[in-house]
């Protein structure tokens, strides 16, 4: 049985269903929103597994699903050696967002990563602790800042409403996913000009740890 992991709610689920439907696999959720079950028509031996987008990388890595749809940001953040564990099959053409670093608009002299590095050093000298950057993307942000020579910061965990952490005085800057930038502007934050860490989008992934003789045939049916 080939298992396909799909986000369980919202526009991401609907767009994923549409994408598969255009390729001959009709997916449908059954039951109410609290029931994570669904059906697949158009191919034998295929099971739909409804998960949160954040759970898909874990299930791919465990080999419990053969194919999965989630954002490239989540795979790269949650799977350290992601390229050894999963393969990118195809971008789905939606779910585009950038992982960026943003600081308060009031920091008029901070527009680049070099400026952030200088501001972080000054902040530590003045306050006696490191500048706090709120994020849920610890691996990606840490690697990016290290590669760009930014020091004297600490990452603080934020699993929701990251843009509000500066206003709430629990962080001085943020690193988060944004698509339109409207929420950043509403919270008086600006994106550093050279701080795009990753351009993310919804992607169909194949687990390298799950195998089924029929998988190549299914991918062929989908056009890959």
TrEMBL record:
GO molecular function, one term: ATP phosphoribosyltransferase activity
InterPro entries assigned: ATP_PRibTrfase_cat, ATP_PRibTrfase_HisG
Organism per entry: Paragemmobacter aquarius
Annotated metabolic or biological route of this protein: Amino-acid biosynthesis; L-histidine biosynthesis; L-histidine from 5-phospho-alpha-D-ribose 1-diphosphate: step 1/9
Gene Ontology CC terms, in alphabetical order: cytoplasm
Pfam families noted in UniProt: HisG
Domain of life: Bacteria
Domain ATP phosphoribosyltransferase catalytic: start-end pairs: 54-209
NCBIfam families to which the protein is assigned, alphabetical: hisG
GO biological process: L-histidine biosynthetic process
Keywords from the named record: Amino-acid biosynthesis, Glycosyltransferase, Histidine biosynthesis, Transferase
Function field: Catalyzes the condensation of ATP and 5-phosphoribose 1-diphosphate to form N'-(5'-phosphoribosyl)-ATP (PR-ATP). Has a crucial role in the pathway because the rate of histidine biosynthesis seems to be controlled primarily by regulation of HisG enzymatic activity.
Listed name of the protein: ATP phosphoribosyltransferase
EC main group: transferase
EC number: 2.4.2.17
Gene3D superfamilies (alphabetical): Periplasmic binding protein-like II
Keyword check for Manganese: no
Catalytic activity entry: 1-(5-phospho-beta-D-ribosyl)-ATP + diphosphate = 5-phospho-alpha-D-ribose 1-diphosphate + ATP
